[in-house]
Every structure is written in structure tokens, then in C-alpha cells.
Amino acid sequence: MKKILIASSALVAVTFAGQAQASEPIKLSVGGYMNQWAGYADQEVGDRNNAFQSDTEIHFKGSTILDNGIEVGAVVELEGETSSDQVDEQYLYINGNFGRIEMGKNDSAADSMQIVAPAVGPVGINDGDLDIWVNAYLIDTTIPTGDQNRVTYFTPSLGGFRAGVSFADDSNRNGATEVGGSTSYNNTNGSGDNIVSGALEYTGDFNGISLGVSAIGENWGEGNLVGGGLNVGFGNFTVGGSYSHTDDDYGFSEGSSDPDDTDQFDIGVSYEMDAAAVSLTYGYAEYGNGSRGDGTGEISTADLGLAYTLGAGVAWKSSVFWFDDEVDGAEDNDGYGVVTGFALTF
């Protein structure tokens, strides 16, 4: 029996080795984006931030198709400007009729599958760049756990439905520190809670009306985050929004070590015609994990976004934004700003 097992193992190894040799070797391609913005912001609290902002990433991607039809690939994203980890995301993926598996440092399933309100400008409302230009809480109805070592599985799309689930064994992330501490992510020791993330989405088209719906959830230790989003497209218009609720014991807080519940949403509409697009988006948050005062307060913000495609991979974008951030235990801040510039993709 032992000889039979050894012979069988050798046969399997030779079979897979033959498949690997028959497939094309992985060759990396280079892509990414570069955003260069110029703007002016006026606010009640704090000095005016820099007049120029940059956001650049270089992406290295490669894949191969095995003889059994399964695709295996890799993605490495290099930050153009960073004060911490030079590599943003890096992960391996496997695609097949069974769905998609990702392993490495990447966003969670809930983060990547959440649907939010349409916005075409450079500032935006949801997980945008508001806190780069002014001192304000940043609305984010997606999951703020960042890129960290995890495994994620996405099902195939069945009748428009698709599900995803992720598991991470460390609550730290690139350049982050623990709540109430100073231990940085070290890629080795898991010093936090296990993170389980899940999402379900539906996309469909009904006589020219497109529909996108998402439901997300994430458990981090003793805390939970739940939310969802909806987008409806008809003609050149898209209308939609999103919402999320975070329990006070979720444990992700830049301010208070015992944050209150956080509820936040965004809603907006966009119109696209040929190379031009315009959007108007509003967001609101009653937050318990802010970064000023005792970390609680509420914010309202609006953004008028403009975008015009000048050519392949070249777009001119602008935003006119307003915000009102009322912070408990600190001076309220409000103001406005104008940002314009170019977005390149390659």
C-alpha cells in the first residue's frame, strides 16, 4: 500500500508539473494612475492646507492560464507618495468556474463590494479626499480596516447575485497603530482580533434601467459594522446612496478609546453625456470615532463634481465642496473649497 501511495503521489506531481510547463510563464505588465490637483480651501479652524496634492500608484500585474483553464495571477501596487509602507496592495488570485480566491494584503470583501452614491469629482463625499484639504471627519460607509493579510472568496455571478467573504487574522494594517497604543503593523505578529467580512450584491438591467444593490457586514472582535448601498441608472442619469452603522465597541477609533456608535450615509445623482459628467452628492455622519476633541460629533458635507475626458487615459476633473463639522468638546469647523486638476490612468 505504501508503494502504491508513493507512486500515486509521484504521478500527481508529474501531472501538475506538466501542466505548469505547458502554460505560459507569468509576465508582469505595468499600469496605474497619477492624479495631480490644485485647490483652495477656507475653514474656520486651522490653517489652510497645501494648495497642491498628488496621488500616484504604479501597478504590476501578471497572470497565466493553466491547462485546466484556471487563471492564476498576481497584483502588486506601489505607492508614489507615502510616509509608511511603500507597497499598497499585494496579493495572489485564482479565477475559475468556482469563483475567485484572493490571498495577500488587500481590501475585504465588504469594502470592495459596497455600492456608494455616484461622484465624479476629485474630492467626493464617501471615502474621498475631504480630510486632505480641510480639518474634518471623513465619511466612509465602506470598511475602514484597510489593506491587510487576508484570504477572500467571491462566488461566480448567478442570476446577477454575487457573494464574498474574507478572513484576516490581524487587526493592524499598513502604517496603522493600535487603538490607544503605538505598535505598528509588522507583517508577522497578529496583535489584534480576527476580522470576518461578508457582502452580497445584485446587479441587473431591466428594459434600460440598471440596478445595483449591496449589503455588507464585518465583525472585528466584539464590534460589528453593517451597511448597504443602492444605485439606479436610467438614460444618462445615475441616482444612489449608501449607509453604514458601526457599534460603539467596534474598536477602530482615531480619537476616543471608547467611541460612540457611528451612523453615516451619502446620497447623490450624476449625469453623463459623451465625454462630460457632472455629479451632486451629499453626505452626513453622526460619528463616534473622529480625530478632534473627544472624537464624537456630526458632519454635513456636499460636493459638486465635474469630469471631462480629454483622451484615452486623460481626464480633467473639478470639485466645489462645502462642509460643516460640529465636534463635541472642540471648536466647530466649517468652510468650502475648490479643487481642479488632471487624472491619468495607464
UniProtKB/TrEMBL annotation:
Compartments where located: Cell outer membrane
Species, as recorded: Thalassospira alkalitolerans
Description of how the protein assembles with itself and partners: Homotrimer.
Bilayer-spanning residue ranges: none
Signal sequence, renumbered to the chain: 1-22
Classification via Pfam families: Porin_4
GO CC entries: cell outer membrane; pore complex
SUPFAM superfamilies per record: Porins
Membrane disposition: Multi-pass membrane protein
Broad class of the protein's primary localization: membrane
Any Gene Ontology biological process: monoatomic ion transport
Domain Porin: 8-319
Protein name (database record): Porin
This protein's record includes keyword Membrane: yes
GO MF annotations in UniProt: porin activity
